[in-house]
# Entry
Amino acid sequence: MELPDRDICYRALQSRDARFDGLLFVGVTSTGIYCRPICPARTAKLENCRFFGSAAAAQEAGFRPCLRCRPETAPDLASWRGTSNTVSRALALIADGALDGDGARVETLAERLGLGERQLRRLFLQHLGASPIAVAQTRRVLFAKQLIHETRIPMTEIALAAGFGSVRRFNEIFQDLFHRPPSALRRKNSAIPSGTEAGVTLRLRYRSPYDWNSMLAYLHARAIPGVEVVEKGRYLRTVEIAGFAGSVEVTHLPQRQSLGVTIRFPDVKSLPAIVTRVRRLFDLGADIETIDAHLSSDPLLAPLVAQRPGLRAPGGWDGFELAVRAVLGQQISVVAARRLAGQLVSLHGKSVPAGYVNHPGLSHVFPAAERLSSAESIGLAMPGTRQASLKALAAAAVADPNLFRPVGTMEDAIVRLRAIPGVGEWTAQYIALRAIREMDAFPASDIGVLRGAARLDGVRPTPAVLLDRAESWRPWRAYAAQHLWAVDAAAVINDGGAYG
Ligand SMILES: [Zn+2]
# Structure
């Protein structure tokens, strides 16, 4: 894989350069430990340093994570490195637990991605310097380590939460790596509250800059009554996974370049899935410096990037929920779409048990696909054809659990989505962008995107002209769209239909 040359890597290490955090790891041969470039420990001699582009590569080479700089708290940028969409998709599936558990096999993962096992291994080696199994293993170890350090969750539950399958396996692996049981790594810290009611609080790091205000404004404008609350600089929402319901609360910790996430949920096994969703919604994996620099090379976009450095492209919390929002938002304003979504929730959403929410505005979970597909009537005040598309969408989601997952190419995903009655090109691109996280998706016919472009040039382009212009924004057209939406939303106080 491509790393800067040794001298540059070493200089980054000597100066504890935060720009390399998450992109570079150093294994020290004299100690067997690997570190982030910002590690406060004394810098090792150059001849004892081995450089890696991912934690998994360092771990596969036999190094164990440092207890001081804690590689598990580096920004998780792996999915943005390199240019391989296949690797990004595979990482998203691994984060979803595709290689956890006894029955999990690389071959099955490769099949889901539409390629052979050997090809997948080769791509991983090329882009991450590690095998898929090592990536999944490292992910489990690092997540468990974070839970050990930042929470009071009992060790037996951490083993399950991190996807180890058994406590014995968890103990073995930690003993192997750290030469002591996992419990020995836990520091005594009375500041951490315990118990499910208080929730589990974790810090998730991002790469600076992060335009938190734009993110919150975006979420605030779309917050579904009963499901989401944006208040006092915080984002709160209800969560349903595997039949359990709870909530999350997200705050910004700018000094730590992190988000603070408090999860109140009855089932620890769902913790990784919840963290993955938070990362996706808040776009924490973006290598934003690289993206901003790329978009700034277009004189049209440069002033926008300068105005909103670190603007993120929000992801969908859940694929089905996002798709429903997209269908509800067809042809109507953000405000109207939000009201309809709130009605849908009060008609079909399950209520959340008290004790797992800490705000009166959080009452229901967003209705699952099964629920909507089996409902006799959707019951919303909207045209019959659009209610029928909601039903069709729910039926399609029930029939194909991978509908909103990054399976196959982006073109495949668009075709799959367009096969659903009522889902046209705009809706399909929008779902691909937000739910499947295709960072090159671009809804060129979106009214808000077109108006945003018009505010820069003075003339509103046709979708075809805009698509042409957007060629040079690849592979990050989704971020360009976000900038155009942002400039449009800032100009139009009463949003006239841009769903962005
Ligand atoms: Zn270190």
User: Anything to note?
Assistant: The longest strand covers residues 244-253. The pocket of zinc ion is lined by residues 35, 39, 41, 66, 68-69 (CB under 6 Å). The chain has 21 helices and nine strands.
